[in-house]
Design goal:
- Helix 1 packs antiparallel against helix 2.
- The protein contains 10 helices and 14 strands.
- About 5% of the residues have low confidence.
- The chain has 2 domains: about 70 residues, Cation efflux protein, cytoplasmic domain (Alpha-Beta Plaits, 2-Layer Sandwich), CATH 3.30.70; about 240 residues, Rossmann fold.
- About 35% of the residues lie in helices and about 20% in strands.
- The chain is of the alpha/beta class.
- The strands form 3 sheets. Strands 4, 5, 8, 9, 10, 11, 12, 13 and 14 form a 9-stranded mixed sheet that branches.
- Bound molecules: adenosine-5'-triphosphate.
- Adenosine-5'-triphosphate binds next to helix 3, strand 12, strand 14 and helix 9.
Length: about 325
């Protein structure tokens, strides 16, 4: 058994303030992130060798893998100063419309006059660029990533951290470290709220992210299907594990509205999420219908919540509930 606390101590001594995301496998294999910003390549390689050697000296360590990151150039922003609140949007499984809800919540809250950022941390399929119609890549200025601006929001996607042509296999600590950089070292300016679109699911990566970012609250998105609901329950218990308050459940694709005749059909069953929320004691934030125009507007980079219409109304109502639960109005900057 490797003594993780001892290992962290050894790493810290070998490279003060430069190691993070330490993992220890059951077989004694060890991984961590080593930040080598501001260092020449040769010096970085030497430091890596030294830190790996130090890690190998710890009792029980069988193998060592350091992941080098160089993006941490700028001094981190003072936490809690420029970003007043963080909201995580999560789902137990993929494809339930989590990103669509995150983007439209962000747009609706911005429309209420708050300064809002949207961070796309969905490493499995960053969709914020499509949802907001963002083109190109985020630029670096003074060693800080510059969020893009669209629909009254500042936005940054994990897609901007990698080469889109190269598939990246993210490991938990790497993904969490990339995300921390996007929160702390990007030039968000003053924000009342940063909405984070988490990767779907409740595995290690999501848990590590939730633990690292310590959001003020989380919104869980689910479809009314039973299977998705079981996964939503897992998401709720994941946040409970890391002491993050679940602000409530959003039911997406709750009722199918026929684009031709306007008739509503409950193809996944009626009120599944609402009943489940009541049963497990989590607030129900609202339901969004399955509507072809939501998909069309989203795919075209026009968040449906930007227009005042029948399809934007549920997003706006949910946004109002989230604003209340986060108490965003208190201490609101003028
Ligand atoms: N209420 C809705 N009505 C119609 N289409 C919707 C609705 N919500 C989302 N969609 C569509 O469903 C698809 C999946 O949505 P989205 O990308 O938001 O899901 P997700 O849960 O974030 O997926 P993943 O996390 O797996 O990337 C998109 O094409 C989106 O436009």
């Amino acid at each position: 058994m490797v003594d993780k606390a001892r290992l962290i101590e050894v790493l810290e001594r070998a490279a003060p303030g430069r190691t993070s995301g330490v993992t220890v496998g059951a077989d004694g294999s060890v991984g961590f992130v080593l930040a080598v910003d501001g260092m020449e390549r040769g010096a970085a390689t030497t430091l890596q060798a030294e830190v790996e050697r130090a890690a190998r000296s710890v009792l029980g360590v069988t193998g060592v893998r350091a992941i080098l990151t160089a993006e941490r150039g700028a001094a981190p922003a003072e936490p809690g100063k420029s970003i007043r609140h963080i909201l995580a949007v999560a789902s137990g499984k993929g494809g339930v419309g989590k990103s669509t809800v995150a983007a439209n919540l962000a747009v609706s809250i911005a429309a209420q006059g708050y300064r809002v950022g949207l961070l796309d941390a969905d490493i499995y399929g960053p969709s914020v660029p499509t949802l907001l119609g963002l083109e190109g890549r985020a630029m670096l200025e003074n060693n800080r990533l510059q969020p893009m601006e669209a629909h009254g929001l500042k936005a940054l996607s994990i897609g901007n951290m990698t080469d889109p042509d190269k598939a990246v296999v993210w490991r938990g600590p790497m993904a969490a470290s990339a995300m921390t950089q996007m929160i702390d070292n990007a030039d968000w300016g003053e924000l009342d709220l940063l909405v984070i679109d988490l990767p779907p699911g409740t595995g290690d990566i999501q848990l590590t992210m939730a633990q690292k970012i310590k959001p003020d609250g989380a919104v869980i998105v689910s479809t009314p299907q039973d299977l998705a609901l079981i996964d939503a329950r897992k998401a709720i218990s994941m946040f409970a594990q890391v002491d993050v308050q679940v602000l409530g459940l959003v039911e997406n694709m709750s009722v199918f509205v026929c684009p031709h005749c306007g008739e509503a059909s409950h193809i996944f069953g009626a009120h599944g999420a609402e009943e489940e929320a009541a049963r497990i004691g989590v607030p129900f934030l609202g339901a969004i219908p399955l509507h072809a125009s939501i998909r069309e507007a989203s795919d075209a980079g026009r968040p449906p919540a930007t227009a005042i219409s029948e399809i934007s109304a549920p997003y706006r109502e949910i946004a109002t509930r989230v604003v209340q639960r986060l108490n965003l109005a208190a201490g609101r900057a003028s």
